[in-house]
Amino acid sequence: MSGGILMCPLELPKFTKSYWRKERSNKTYPPLTENLTTDVCIIGAGIAGVTAAYVLANEGVTVHVIEGSKIVSGTTGFTTAKITAQHGVIYDELIQTFGKNEASQYFDANQKAREQIKKWIDSLSIDCDFEERHAVLYAQTPQGVEQLHTEKAAYDQLGILGELSTSKEELPFPVSETLTIPDQAQFHPVKYINGLVKEAQKLGVTFYEDTRAKSLREDDDEVFIETMEGHIIKAKQALVTSHFPFNDKEGFYFSRLSPQRSYAVCVRVPSEQMTGMYINVEKPSRSIRTAKGDKGESYVIVGGEGHKTGQHDDDSHDESTVQRYETLTQFAKQHFQVESIDTHWSAQDYETLDRLPYIGEMSSSSSHVFLATGFSKWGMTNGTTAGLLLADLAQNKFNPCKDLYSPTRSKIKKEDAKHFVKINANVAKELVTGKFDRPTDSVDDLKNDEGRIVMVDNHKTGAYKDKNGQLHLVKPTCTHLGCDVHWNDGERTWDCPCHGSRFSYKGEVLEGPAVKPLERK
Asked: What do you get for the CA distance between the two ends of the chain, in Å?
């Protein structure tokens, strides 16, 4: 399994690209060009939105789905794609925060999501590289081992089948102890979603790409969604599955969610026989899984290096995006026989105050608008859970998880209140710091394929000089709530350190909550 470091030079590809996004559907969908009326409008075509669309269509509901970019172009296409109810060391914390019954309910919901994914893959014959794998937490320090034992005690309380082991054979480096949940899985998320979209279409679901929602209002028993192009969608119910709710000021979600970025590199190896999907309990985080290419090639995907979007000092010191990729690459080369670096990419996800997703009514005054967000980097099962729950809520059906995931849940523990204060103090700091920062560089200081904040005509300006020397200038103020954006050298994007909005170097919206592009200069 481990054969040392190859001596040949191995460099990161120049541009980021998700391993999963190499497999793209040839099917494209037109943008919305007219007003329409539907039973349910779903905003966002990731795993939660597509799951809900398929379930609703099976029930005879008329569904239209709009996507601001391309289907599976968001976090679903940039995940590590583990289908598991083992979400790090979470169950002891859930017992302490919510209680034994609620923690058990969370595990059961994610197990049900895993089983539902497998059922659809089998019944719909979706070819998506599905493989059953054990989910393994590993520790390398005494503190980590203590965490594993605490989590195992939580497993025992909840009746979760989990096994502690001191085996050293599972991974190509020393570990002190592992905690394993058997019979979990991994797959190719883009192939899966493309297959589910195809089946949803057969049932009458209509998909629109490059159609970004601008605003939403609820009026009596109807919901009106306006797109950036000015078209109006009238629906009986609206499901906001756009990852971060674009209408986040309803319910102040921007103050209750923390945007987090994480990174992955995919390396080609001669062969790989690991039987599990792995993640450590210490910091910095390291997530490891295998993948098979269409021609039988063997790959290892290593993830980690997380931090708050637009900021650099969380998990792995004050590093640039490129340095984070290089750190993961060095880890892979140290422990695996790396033949080449295939792809590398980053993903964005959101953490809630209490680590449970928000799935349900947008606010206490909304009876026809529902949302799903805050999957905390475990979107394959949490997103599927969200789609199943939202489909029930849209039909006014009973679902036992409704209260557990309700975005308006009133339980806020002392630690959650501290987390709320911490999140928003950090936002305030970034907002103020950004306004007082005065760069000393000018556009003349930029090299090709380099970006940063510079001064132009005595105004702060976001500047990127592309590989051909062409300058692209934007006003570096996020169109969501006015924070100054930061340059991301790995993705060549402008990222907001306050609420996670991301923009291309040309200013186009890549990630909400912002709906308007940066002002171009």
From this structure: 52
The pLDDT > 90 percentage for the chain reads: 60
Alpha carbon distance 483, 96 (integer Å): 35
- CA of residue 501 relative to chain centroid, distance: 13
Whether the bond between 284 and the residue before it is cis, its omega within 30 degrees of 0, is yes
pLDDT, one tens digit per residue, over 164-199 is 998 767 789 999 999 999 999 999 999 999 999 999
- Planar angle of CA 307, 73, 424, nearest 5 degrees: 35
SS3 282: coil
Pairing assessment for the beta strands 459-465 and 493-495 based on DSSP bridges: unpaired
CB 214 within 8 A of CB 43: no
32: left (phi over 0), alpha (psi -120 to 50) or beta: beta
Render pLDDT for 447-472 as a digit per residue (tens, 0 to 9): 898 888 888 888 888 999 988 889 99
Instruction: For the chain, state the CA radius of gyration.
Output: 22
Query: Residue 225 CA to chain centroid, in angstroms?
Result: 24
Any idea what the Cα angle at residue 262 is, between residues 260 and 268, rounded to 5°?
Answer: 165
Beta-bridge mates of residue 137: 179, 279
Q: At what angle do helices 100-123 and 379-394 cross, to 10 degrees?
A: 90
The pTM (predicted TM-score) of the whole model is: 0.86
